[in-house]
Amino acid sequence: MANTDLASQVLPTAPPPPQEVKVRTLKSDLASIAQSGGGLPKYQNVKIAAASEKKPHAAAGLMMTIAIIVLALIILAIALYFVNQLVLKK
Question: What percent of the chain shows pLDDT beyond 70?
Answer without folding.
Answer: 77
